[in-house]
Design goal:
The protein has about 375 residues and is an alpha+beta fold. It contains nine helices and 16 strands.
Amino acid sequence: MRLSVFQTIREKRVLALICFGILSVMIVAAFWPFEFHPSNHVTWLSGENGLRFNAGGIVLSSRDFELPDSQSAAGVSLELWLEPSQEKYSTALLSFSSHDNPEQFRLRQSHDFLLVIQELFATSRHTAARWLWVPHAFQAHKRRFIAISSGAQGTTVYLDGIPAESSSTFRIRAKGFSGQFIVGTSPVVYDTWRGKLFGVAVFGRELMATQVAEHYQAWLSGRTELINSDRPAALYTFGERSGTVAHNQVISGPDLAIPASFRVPCKPFLKSPWREFYPNQAYVRDVVINIAGFVPLGFFFCLLFSSSEASRRSVIATIILGAVFSVTIEILQGFIPMRDSGTTDIITNTLGTALGAMLCRSGAVEVLLGKIESRASLKAGHH
């Protein structure tokens, strides 16, 4: 007696192999490359002062920053002497991160643009963010001196000592330069910058155009004592060329640590759905993929749990399995720097499992396979 395709896949051994294969593929997709403590890809440059950041590199302050005059209206300034490795992607370059507001001040390289972002208070949708775009700030493998000076009259961004962009409404608060100083990645997600960093200076006041021009020449010539004479709050020249610490040339300021392994400093754990929601195509695409990806799990495990036809009990057991499996994935992804941990995926994955289980119980697939088999039989009979 000829067995149907659907009856064949009901064999427990075949179903068990299919279910094992589904779980294996999903585990690889969820945890690849299985690096819970990946190496920190930051190395000292050979032959000159500086650090090289490859994919997955981070340097962070050994303790929180706190400018001496953080309550004054003197303004703040930041100088960077660097060389990007690429200009095709958008990556996080630098940030000041506090416990209450992890993304309070950030610099991003967005293709060849510099993006200066100040987050007035913590929010998942960045509705409190203030932005300043600086075009043509980066060119791959070309050294660039970037200075950001902000005071009561607004903010000016200098490129190689020359004013490139200014805004009278964008003012950087002194509080923005407090908290942990992070270079090379975002404080909250795996978003790493590639390039070389030769020097950083932080000032607790607004710098004038003449000072910025003098500092550019000082960085070019390596005469950083001229910068130190302008009393920075922090100055890093990366002259150590070895070790795990980049020392602050200002004794009162924190050093920069180069950890052995990479981690995202303020990565959210099981982030709530309303904080993950973002009204764009990427969010909708992720939701659809997460639902569709768990439909096969729901369908085949429901078959495996059923003695004959898919019963209500087997459907419930399958949905519980999908939910538990999804929760386990999201918990473990909280410890993998290159993965995000959120509850939206738990909801969408469980929904996909339920759809697969209900599809199995409906018998629609059995009818479809029966029709396919009948047509195949008719064609074989004609031949």
